[in-house]
Amino acid sequence: MAVLTIMKREFVSYFTTPVAYVFLVIFLVMQGLFTFYLGSFYVREQANLSAFFEYQPWLFLFLMPAIGMRLWAEERRSGTFELLLTLPVSLAAVVVGKYLAALMFAGLALMLTVPIWITVNWLGDPDNGVIATGYMGSFLMAASYLAIGSALSATTKNQVIAFILAVTVCFLFLVSGLPMVLDSFSGWAPDEFVLAIANMSLLSHFYNLQKGVVVLSDLIYFAAMISLWLWVNLVVIESKREAG
User: Fold this and answer.
1) In 3D, which of 142, 145, 197 has the Cα closest to residue 166?
2) Exposure string (b/e) for 48-61, b if CB count within 10 Å is 16 or more?
3) Mean local confidence (pLDDT), 168-190
4) Rounded to whole angstroms, how far apart are CA atoms 159 and 27?
5) Residue 229, C-beta contacts closer than 8 angstroms, at least 6 positions apart
6) What's the Rg (C-alpha) of the chain?
7) The total number of structural domains that make up the chain
8) Neighbours of 188 (CB within 10 A)
9) What domain range is 28 assigned to?
10) Is a pLDDT exceeding 70 seen at residue 41?
11) SS3 breakdown of the chain: % helix, strand, coil, rounded to 5?
C-alpha cells in the first residue's frame, strides 16, 4: 500500500511542470524520425517495425537516464531528502515507489507510440506477435536503464552528474556484447570471462525479444538487472541516511 501511495505521488509530480509534456513530445518526434526516416521505413517496403526497435536502445540510452536523474538528486538538492526518509514507511517502499513512478512514465511514453503499430497494420500485414515481444523488450530495457539511473541519482545532488553517470554505465552494459568489445578481451582473457562479458549485454538480450524469440534466460537477465540496481539504490540511500 505504501509503495502505491508513493508511486502515485511521484507519478503525478511529473506533470506539475511542462517538463513531462516536453519530454513526451521529444520522445515521440524522435521515435518517428528514427522509424520513418533514419530507419528507411518506406524504402524497405516491409510491413514491420524492425526500424522502430532498431534504434530504440540508443534512443533510450539518453532519454531514460533523463527521467531517472531527478529521482533522488532533486530530493537531495531541494532538501526534501531528509523529510522523505522520515515518512512512516520502509526505505525499500520509498525506493520501489519512486522507481515504479518513473517506470509508469516511461511506459506511458511507450504506449503513445502505439499509433505507429496501428499504422503498420493499416499499411500491411505484420507479424503482431513479433511486434508485441519487441514492445516487451523495449519496456524491459527501459526498466533496466531506469533502475541504473535511479541508483546513480542517489549518489549525487547534481542531476547533470547523475545523468552522465547513468548514460556511461548504461552504455557499458549496452555495448559489452559487441564484437569490437569482446575482441579486446579475447586475446588475453579466459573464454569464460569473455562469455560472461557478452552475457552482460543489454543489447543481445533485447535483440532476442525484438526478433520475437522469448527465452527464459533473457527474462531472468532483465529481472536480475533491475533487482540488482534497485538493491544498489537501497544501499546507497541507507548509507546516506546513516551518514546524516
Assistant:
1) 145
2) bbbbbbbbbbeebb
3) 81
4) 20
5) 144, 147, 148, 150, 151
6) 19
7) 1
8) 8
9) 2-243
10) no
11) 80, 0, 20
Closest to 124 in 3D by CA, of 53, 54, 49? 49
Looking from the CA of 202 toward its CB, the CA atoms found within 13 Å total 26
In angstroms, the CA 49 to CA 114 distance is 11
Give me the amino acid identity at 9: R
On whether the CB atoms of residues 150 and 102 are closer than 8 A, the answer is yes
Q: Is 119 a residue whose pLDDT tops 70?
A: yes
Please, what is the angle between helix 2-13 and helix 91-111, to 10°?
50
Between CA 148 and CA 185 the distance in angstroms is: 25
pLDDT-derived band of residue 142, with 50, 70 and 90 as boundaries? very high
Mean pLDDT to the nearest integer, 21-42: 81
Q: Which amino acid is at 57?
A: P
Per the CB < 8 A criterion, the answer to whether 101 and 7 are in contact is yes
Give the pTM: 0.90
What is the C-alpha to C-alpha distance for residues 149 and 31, in angstroms, rounded to an integer?
21
